[in-house]
Each structure stands twice: as structure tokens, then as C-alpha cells.
Amino acid sequence: MRTLTLLFFSIFLFQNCSKPKATVFEDKRLAQEEVVKLCFIGDLGKDSPHQQIMADALGREECHRIFFLGDLVYPKGISSVDDPEFEKKFLDYYKPLLDQDPDLIIPLVLGNHDHKKDPSAWKDVSKRYEGFFFPNYYYMIDYGGLCLVALDTSFYYYTEKVLEATEQASWLFQLQSRLKDCEVKVAVTHHPLKGNGYDKTDDWEGASGPLKAFLETYIIGKFDIHVAGHVHVLVDDGRDEKTRMLISGAGGENRSGGRSGFVVLRWEPHNPKRIGYSLRYIDTEVNVFDESQSESEYARQEQVSSEQEEHIIYKDRVEPWWPAKLFRSLVDKLKN
Ligand SMILES: [Fe+2]
After folding, report:
1. CA torsion through residues 47, 82, 107, 323, sign
2. What is the pLDDT of residue 324?
3. Can you give the CATH number for the domain in which 213 is found?
4. How far is the CA of 255 from the centre of ligand 1 (A)?
5. Residue among 103, 73, 109, 100 nearest 88 (CA)
6. How far does residue 228's CA lie from ligand 1's centre (Å)?
7. I need a labelling partner for 62 at 20 to 30 A (CA). Which of 2, 131, 210, 233 fits?
8. Are 176 and 321 in contact (CB under 8 A)?
9. How many angstroms does the Cα of residue 109 sit away from the middle of ligand 1?
10. 157 C-alpha vs ligand 1 centroid, how far in Å?
11. Does the pLDDT at position 228 exceed 70?
12. How far is the CA of 184 from the centre of ligand 1 (A)?
């Protein structure tokens, strides 16, 4: 049973608050693997031939886990697990992946479109279909040294969600002591910090306001890798303050004119400080372009590995990882 692979231990990080209850999961079964392969793709539910091509390619990739990066169903998300849009634009495409591989788990994060109807419906999806993992809008999974933190950036994109935004930021702030045990830290969100300029049909100019403040305060410079969607492209958006920023938002369409596909992270549990990433390009004739064929994946593994060496210094720092004043300034921005 998939659920049994996730040894749940709830950490109540807020001793003085009734909520939020932080959700931290350990999935140590993957630590037995030679190589762990995690895949990432967002901006899915278009009900398009493109979406099917990407879904089929994911099925061939044999990922241990596939993280969906939000905007799961266009244009307004779903009203309930029985919403016809859910079956038509999501389930029909991705349930076959779960049927094909009984060990596969697909963790979800939500995007801005998923907040238009009822975002809590995705919790019911997770209960009905155990392969789709969505215990909360934000959560952490520790694969035995590789830690994935999934967050909902729409709380900062839609500025009226002040309560949710503050609660999530508080949870993440408190999580820092747990994250110090992680060899590699990956943040998974819907919105990227940058990503502007790739989509000529959209006016996305990068994160701004509270969203920019949140990403700059909590993600950039604090995680080794940040994987996001929202922009309908597959790109390596560079490195900023020790954080490699990847955008994988071409699950339902591609609006860059470039190649589509998804992000693949490769992690070896016996060599836990090292992680490799690649952009797996899929063309419309469903040929797979693997960047490792040109040795670039190996080069990038080395690159990220050396970056990880720099991140180790965080473990030895005495001062708070996220200075409390940054949290207070973020809350002030949310209130204003
Ligand atoms: Fe989006």
C-alpha cells in the first residue's frame, strides 16, 4: 500500500498554537534504491494532445515520484472530487500512471488556477486516490536526507489570503531546525521567482509584492534547488544565491516556442550530499532528448554537487537560518 510507505509522524511545531499543525513525512523506502529519480511538471489540465504526450513520456521515465507543480485543472480548478473537470482534464491523463506502477506516488502542490473553485477538493482527491498525495497545502517529505518542501505560493499571489500566507510562513520558519538534518533541500512551488520573458503571450514579469518577498525570504539562498511552474516552459532559470531555479510548467502546453518536457532530479542515497538535475525534453513525435547524452547532465551533477558543498555551512551557523526580522517584515508586507 502506498500509504504505508509514508511513515507519518506529525510534528506539532507550534507549541502555543492550535494551528497550523506542520506535516512532515518520512519516506525512507527510497533510501534503499541505488538511484532515486524524482520528476517535476506543472500546468497540466488543458485536456490537450500536448498533455497526453507529456503524460505518456512521464510513464516511460519510470520516476519514483512525480511532483505536480500546480494549475492542475484549467481554468478554475475543481469544485469537488466529483467535478467532471477533474476526470476529464486530470484523472484520465494521470490515473493510468498509477495503474501502471503500483509504487508510484504523485505529490501535488496547487497553483493559482486551483484556487478559483475549491482548493480543499484536492484533499478529497488524495483520500479517494491514494497515489495522489496531498495532505495539506504545504508539507515536507524526507526521503532519507533528500528533503522536499512543498508550498502554496498562491497565498502570496492572491494578497487577500493573509491568514494562510502568515500561517504557512510561520510553519516554514519553524521547520528550519528540522531542515538542518537534510543533506539536500528542494523547494517545490507553483510560482517561480523569475521566469519572465520566456512566454511571449503572457505578461508575467516575475514575482512581485508579497510573493517576491516570500520567495526571496524563504526559498532563494535557503534551498539547493527550487522547482516551479506557472510559466508554460521548461527552462533552467539559472542560479541565484546558491539556489538553482528550474521552471517546469509545460505539462499542458508550451508557449515559449521551445521544447517541452519535465525536470528530473537524480539522487544517490549512498552519496547524499550530491544531487543531479536535468531537463528532459520531449518533442511532438515523442522522441526523448536526454541532456546526459551530451554529457551536460554529468556536468550539472558536478555543478550542483559543488554548490551543495557551500550549503553545508548552514549546518554550522549559530544564528537563525531565517532571521526573525525577515519573517516580521514579510508579515508587515502582507498586512499592508
Ligand atoms: Fe499559474
Report:
1. positive
2. 60
3. 3.60.21.10
4. 13
5. 73
6. 10
7. 233
8. yes
9. 11
10. 10
11. yes
12. 26
Going from the Cα of 43 to the center of ligand 1, the distance in angstroms, rounded, reads 7
Q: Which residue has the higher pLDDT, 273 or 189?
A: 189
Structurally, the chain folds into a number of domains equal to: 1
CA–CA dist 187, 202 (Å, integer): 24
Residue 3 inside a domain? The answer is no
Q: What is the pTM of this model?
A: 0.85
Q: Ligand 1 centroid vs 76 CA: distance in angstroms?
A: 11
For the purposes of burial, counting CB atoms within 10 Å of the CB of 7, is it exposed (0-12), middle (13-18) or buried (19 or more)? exposed
pLDDT band at 106 (very low <50, low <70, confident <90, very high): very high
Using the mean position of ligand 1's atoms as its centre, give its distance from the Cα of residue 166 in Å: 21
Residue 4 lies in a domain: no
The predicted model gives 17-44 an average pLDDT of 82
**Residue ranges with CB less than 5 Å from ion ligand 1:** 71, 111-112, 230
For residue 186, list its beta bridge partners. 148, 225
Rounded to the nearest 10°, the torsion over CA 5, 66, 132, 256 is 170
User: Strand 184-188 relative to strand 146-150: parallel, antiparallel, unpaired?
Assistant: parallel
Grid coordinates belonging to 229: 511552474
pLDDT value for 283: 67
pLDDT for residue 43 is more than 60: yes
Residue 159 CA to ligand 1 center (angstroms) comes to: 15
Q: How far is the CA of 62 from the centre of ligand 1 (A)?
A: 26
**1 CA to centre of ligand 1 in angstroms:** 32
Residue 13 in domain = no
Do the domain assignments include residue 8?
no
Residue span of the structural domain in which 61 resides: 20-335
| Residue 121, number of CB atoms within 10 A of its CB | 20
Read off the pLDDT of residues 125-181 as tens digits, 9 standing for 90 and up: 999 999 999 999 999 999 999 999 999 999 999 878 888 888 998 899 888 888 888
